[in-house]
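Mods, move this if it's the wrong board.
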Amino acid sequence: MNGEKLLQTNEVENFSKYDFSELWLQTDNNLVYGILGDDFQRIQIKLISISKNINNQNEYFVYGKSKVKENICEFVGKITILKIQESKREHFGVDDEFKNSGIKTQGLLTAKYEFFENKLQSHSGYFTGSLETKWFLDKDDKIQYDNINIHSDGYFNNAFVGSWKMYHSIIEKKCHWGDYRVPSVECGFDIGAAEFNIAEKYHKKGWLDSIETKKRETIKNWWE
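Not the wrong board. Structure tokens:
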């Protein structure tokens, strides 16, 4: 939460009427970074569509695609919100720019996710783990993606932390991804201070392409 202190009460039932789906679709995919395995192989995750389950207000149906090297798999699954905590509201961005913006409250949601790749596609499996997302409630009573502290060092959001397991195999690898940073990885991999920056020894694990795409004006969407 970038220094924000959280209230301990779980307010998930009080916030179930709101739709959080847009929070996971906000960030440009070139700024979503992920790793697969202990060697920090780059994995790209694109959540393409998300819809709220009308029969379960805390559950969201997800369709997306994953990419490792040149292997692309589509997946379906769900995100289930388990906990919503409000913050004590002590930080309002650089120079308190959001202090008088009418924000009603902000906080952190904790969820679990299960994404199942198409079994007919090569090297497919399923993702499971936990998700943390920062949000705020604006003056119009709409849930928004919390980018209040986006200019602070180390900012990140939508932290997916878990594993990927291949179907019908003992192969299981840690798999973490998030907006602007890879969550829960050792500092020897991400050596950036103000922003994400991969140590050179990991460039050959698919990250050299990530560095070069930042220099291009036009980038083809690999998931289309």
